[in-house]
Design a protein that fits this description.
This protein is α/β, with parallel strands linked by helices and about 270 residues long. It has two domains: about 5-160, 3-Layer(aba) Sandwich (Rossmann fold), CATH 3.40.50; about 170-255, ProC C-terminal domain-like fold (Orthogonal Bundle). The chain is built from twelve helices and eight strands. It has an eight-stranded mixed β-sheet with strand order 3-2-1-4-5-6-7-8, sandwiched between helices. The two termini are about 25 Å apart.
Amino acid sequence: MKYGLIGTGNMGSMLTHAFISSGAVQAGDINVYNRSPDKAEALKEQFPEITVAQTITEAGQNSEIIFICVKPHHYEHVLDHLTLSSNQCLVSITSPVSVNDLEKKVNSQVARIVPSITNRAHAGVSLFTFGDRIHEKFKKELFDTFSCFSKPVEIEEEHIRVSSDIVSCGPAFVGFLLENMIESANKIGGISQDQATVLMEEMIIGLAALLEKDIYSFPELIKKVTVKGGVTGEGLVALEENIDDTFLRMFQATHYKHYRDKLSIKL
């Protein structure tokens, strides 16, 4: 099938890389469009066989599956320039724009797929929600494609925000916490931030391997590393005493932003 990507920013370019590097989609079957042509042309330099469309309309006309990879408040502009048929499938990658919202606006079949930056490494989850009109043909195509570089998980509309926080925002949240841990190691232990970063990266890679191989669950990991009366236990006590409602506030903030975005979006 021919794939179109409207928007080649962080997520649009990441998906393009994942499609091609995983072998899920041939570069010659991909059309891209970006409001700033330089970004699309830079992507073409990496993958010469992709087609750079000159307009949103052109990208839509030459594709069977069209991904909208722009910010939510730009959706109205994109949709105004797309003329889609019932034989095409439009895919939103942002959580505030629901499949119901899109089905009211377009004649095509509709899906929402929220990817993760981890998909760039052919890992992590992609979140799927399907519209009422979508055919099994497109469901299978999308599941098969994303299975090449992620674990597709179908998610209910009411859980899309919290699921996106874990899958899509999670790498940034965890990265922030690890950066803070590295800085604190430098301040208290005197280790250089560069060396602490290397150690942290290797620890995370090892932790991911333990989880991937299903050797330990999170509770089991904590139990295995924590020796009664040991250093790890003291560290965990300090964390428990100071974490308070940090993650409750984080989820509240993302949910409130999601709510504000839905109110502001005009389709």
